[in-house]
Amino acid sequence: MKFSTMLLLLLTCFAVVVEAGSLDERFASYQEKGAGSFDPQQGQIIWQQGVLHTKSGKSRTCGDCHGDDLTKPGKHQKSGKTIEPMAPSANPQRLKDGKKIEKWFKRNCKWTWGRACTVQEKGDILSYLQQL
Ligand code: HEC
Whose CA is nearest to atom 13 of ligand 1? Predict the structure, then answer.
């Protein structure tokens, strides 16, 4: 085998490992920080729960922007911009990038629930979303 072929193979393996590992990495890191096991049903319940936003007096849910059917595009509540579907079956880009996941958890939990999500909540939500 030529050296360049070997290098290419090696790089391909590496990329696959990194991609496949990222959600498991999230789960492991949440558990290191004290979360228990994760429950997709609980994830669905909290994804759909309405939380009163005191300033506007309106109830907010994750679906406000991501829509009710997560295999379809959503619509941003503030900007009106289209948001690509959240379900990995409809949008293979989803739940691949740990940094992106954490960045949006931070913003969206604050906007929707008025506080940060706990590691338990994040794990439950990801275990729900990953099966869609
Ligand atoms: C105000 C609108 C809005 C609300 C409400 C909202 N999101 Fe999001 N969310 C976004 C936008 C915008 C993005 C980034 C654009 C994109 O990825 O399509 C995003 C992306 C994400 C991602 C990144 C997923 C990935 O791998 O690409 C996660 C996780 C997420 N949101 C979780 C939540 C959770 C949990 C809630 C409820 C607590 C929520 N979102 C509510 C607008 C919202």
Answer: 104
